């Protein structure tokens, strides 16, 4: 591992009382790890000047890089500037660049500068400004006892932009030229962390120690990271990435090149490339599939209409589902989702459709159609596929998972993928003929 020592100091009474949950340190740790660095020590303290001064002095003595997060705001409990000035034994002074930033920030919002705002321009004398493109408080840095100290805002959105755009490039300039940090990130859908780890343990038991395999769980996508910090790992990494890809096959949605894309964004990219249009017919998801699609800018190129038909009457009126069919087999049935998909295709003129109808719960289930049961139909005018699943989750999670599965099934259909997804293997409902 690299010898550069990185420590993190978090400040804020809200962090100590639990009013705010710390997500900033996790975000910074992940970004630093991709640079070949790990945080060796993390300390959280309340908004107390003496504690901050003491920790800054101690941590600067024992690290190469110290990142201080929080305490840059305009209120009396924002103490980072004063604490750093005391620790480094320099006066606070009005920084022209910080003053210009806060002045422009106020003018853009039609606000008048007041004393609390101006406090954000009082910084340790001689510090270097770190630009904040999202908020009122600039960041700043100093070198003390040979340690590079970076002071950052506590607002997660501001921190992420500043960290990626300003601080990481500064850190990289001082890292050894021979430091290796090669990271590949794969988006996977259909496996949870434990089931994927079990699969890898069984099928790739000799996974090399020189390639770190990591998982970051998310809903609905799981991110798998392959990281190496050695020349040996770099040499063999393509071979083992190929082995992993062969194992996971079509469960890999994409390799993350710049920033992660959602299932909807990946699907829309492929649809737009092939000039295809999609429509949705939703019951139990209440329009969530359409919502995920329309979150993406430019989605109107491939998505023009979706139908939320929650009641049987609306399934008939909007999509042409036969009332007799609904009476005979019920809304949660293969025949009905097929008619929903066909009706949506006919009404919208789209090329592809996804239709869903299920029992979201917590009420409304029966022995024949229990809570968590869902029928899905997807495909084109002359080729409709169907699948029944049992997803025993809370209502909101059920809706999210059905939405994700629907988008994935369309992705697989559009790409001509014929393998059975793991979620079908694990969650196929066995009483489909009843």
Task: Give descriptors for this structure.
434 residues, single chain, 17 strands, Maf protein, 16 helices, alpha/beta, Molybdenum Cofactor Biosythetic Enzyme, Chain A, Alpha-Beta Plaits, six-stranded mixed beta sheet
Write the layout of secondary structure elements.
Elements: E1 6-11, H1 13-17, H2 24-33, E2 39-45, H3 49-61, E3 65-69, H4 80-88, E4 92-94, H5 96-108, H6 115-119, E5 122-124, E6 128-130, E7 139-144, E8 147-152, H7 156-173, E9 182-188, H8 193-203, E10 212-216, E11 222-228, H9 231-248, E12 252-255, H10 263-273, E13 278-282, H11 288-294, E14 303-308, H12 312-319, H13 323-329, H14 334-348, E15 352-358, E16 373-380, E17 383-390, H15 395-415, H16 422-427
Parallel strand pairs: 1-2, 1-3, 3-8, 13-14, 13-15
Antiparallel strand pairs: 4-5, 6-7, 7-8, 9-11, 9-12, 10-11, 15-16, 16-17
Helix pairs in contact: 2-7, 3-4, 10-15
Assigned CATH superfamily of the largest domain: MoaB/Mog-like domain
Bulk shape: elongated
- Tally the beta strands: 17
Question: What topology, given as strand order, has the largest sheet?
Answer: 2-1-3-8-7-6
The chain-level mean pLDDT equals 94
Q: How far apart are the first and last residues' alpha carbons, in Å?
A: 59 Å
β-strand percent reads 15-25%
Report helical residue fraction: 40-55%
Structural class, judged by helices and strands? Answer: alpha/beta
Write down the Rg: 27 Å
- The DSSP helix count reads 16
Work out the count of structural domains. 3
Q: What is the fold-level CATH name, i.e. the topology of the largest domain?
A: Molybdenum Cofactor Biosythetic Enzyme, Chain A
CATH architecture of the largest domain: 3-Layer(aba) Sandwich
Largest sheet: 6 strands, mixed
CATH class designation of the largest domain: Alpha Beta
Low-pLDDT parts are none
């Amino acid at each position: 591992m690299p010898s550069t020592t990185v420590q993190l100091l978090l400040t804020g009474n809200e962090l100590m009382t639990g009013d705010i949950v710390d997500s900033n340190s996790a975000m910074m740790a992940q970004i630093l790890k991709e640079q070949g660095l790990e945080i060796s020590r993390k300390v959280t303290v309340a908004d107390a000047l003496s504690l901050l001064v003491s920790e800054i002095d101690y941590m600067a003595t024992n690290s190469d890089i110290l990142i201080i997060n929080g305490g840059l705001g305009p209120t009396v409990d924002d103490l980072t500037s004063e604490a750093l000035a005391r620790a480094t034994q320099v006066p606070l002074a009005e920084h022209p660049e910080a003053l210009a930033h806060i002045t422009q920030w106020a003018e853009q919002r039609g606000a008048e500068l007041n004393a609390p705002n101006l406090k954000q321009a009082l910084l340790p004398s001689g510090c270097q400004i770190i630009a904040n493109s999202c908020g009122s408080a600039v960041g700043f840095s100093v070198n003390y006892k040979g340690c590079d100290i970076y002071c950052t805002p506590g607002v997660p959105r501001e921190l992420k932009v500043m960290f990626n755009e300003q601080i990481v490039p500064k850190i990289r300039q001082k890292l050894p030229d021979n430091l290796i940090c090669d990271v590949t990130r794969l988006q996977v859908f259909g496996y949870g962390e434990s089931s994927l780890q079990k699969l890898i343990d069984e099928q790739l038991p000799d996974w090399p120690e020189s390639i770190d395999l990591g998982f970051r769980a998310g809903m609905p996508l799981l991110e798998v990271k392959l990281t190496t910090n050695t020349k040996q790992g770099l040499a063999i990494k393509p071979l083992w990435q190929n082995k992993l890809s062969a194992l996971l096959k079509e469960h890999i949605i994409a390799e993350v090149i710049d920033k992660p894309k959602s299932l909807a964004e990946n699907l829309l990219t492929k649809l737009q490339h092939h000039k295809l249009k999609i429509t949705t017919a939703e019951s139990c998801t209440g329009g969530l599939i359409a919502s995920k699609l329309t979150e993406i800018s430019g989605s109107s190129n491939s998505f023009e209409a979706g139908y939320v038909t929650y009641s049987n009457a609306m399934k008939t009126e909007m999509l042409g589902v036969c009332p007799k069919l609904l009476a005979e087999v019920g809304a949660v049935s293969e025949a009905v989702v097929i008619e929903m998909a066909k009706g949506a295709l006919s009404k919208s003129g789209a090329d592809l459709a996804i239709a869903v109808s299920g029992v979201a719960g917590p009420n409304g289930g029966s022995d024949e159609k229990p809570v968590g049961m869902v029928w899905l139909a997807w495909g084109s005018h002359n080729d409709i596929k169907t699948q029944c699943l049992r997803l025993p989750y809370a209502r909101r999670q059920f809706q999210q998972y059905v939405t994700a599965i629907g988008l994935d099934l369309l992705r697989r259909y559009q790409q001509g993928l014929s393998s059975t997804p793991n979620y079908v293997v694990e969650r196929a409902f066995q009483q489909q003929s009843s």
